Amino acid sequence: MQVGRAFGSRAALRARPGRALPAGASPGGSGARERAAHGDQRGRGTGAAGSTGAAGVAAPGAYLLDPSPAVTRAGLVAGLARSLGAWQIDPMIAFLSTDEPVRTPFARTMRVLASASWHEKKFARRLRELGIGSADIRRRGLAGDVAQIHRRLGLRGDGAATVVLTRVADQPWGLICGPADQPPG
């Protein structure tokens, strides 16, 4: 199927400036050409400069890196992983991990205080044990209302943490993270 036939000619699209292009299309031509040059938008570079394939995938280590949205949109997550000696924790999720702290302007680095298969009641108990009363919840690859999860965790205490809800090996996974310089919990 030709893009021009399915969505109208380029001239027709230009004649209606308020008209949105279909997903993956670009004003100048095929989205496939752009994906080949800039990555496939799922965090895996396919042909971007410095990218030669997917980064390794393994369980979370001692540090979690949350790449900036610009890195993810550009399809450079695998390249960033390789340049930092990091790995992805799931092939379809942009979170990276390392065993040593790394500093980069392209990702937020957090210390992993707890990491396990996601079970909301167990995580709520662990957060209370750590004295966490304030949490920034980041959800990637899982369904769920962050505000409802936050309420159900029943946080109490003076500490703060980032709770990451994601997937590892295609399973729901949770991580409790603190600043990169925080000692292990």
Q: Could you please describe the fold and organization of this structure?
A:
By secondary structure, the chain is α+β, with helices and mostly antiparallel strands. It has 2 domains: 3-38, no CATH class; 63-179. The chain is built from 7 helices and 7 strands, in the order αααβααβββαβαββ. The chain has helices at 3-7, 10-15, 31-38, 69-73, 77-84, 120-129, 146-153; strands at 63-67, 87-88, 96-98, 107-117, 132-139, 159-168, 171-179. The protein has a 7-stranded mixed beta sheet with strand order 2-3-1-4-7-6-5.
Total of helices? 7
Report Rg. 20 Å
Note the main sheet. Answer: 7 strands, mixed
pLDDT averaged residue by residue: 77
Percent of residues in β-strands: 25-35%
SSE arrangement, N to C: HHHEHHEEEHEHEE
> Termini, distance in Å?
56 Å
Counted beta strands: 7
The total number of structural domains is 2
> What class would the helix/strand composition place it in?
alpha+beta
Fraction of residues in helices?
Answer: 25-40%
Strand arrangement, major sheet: 2-3-1-4-7-6-5
Task: Enumerate the spans where pLDDT stays under 50 for 5 or more consecutive residues.
Answer: 1-52
Basic shape: globular
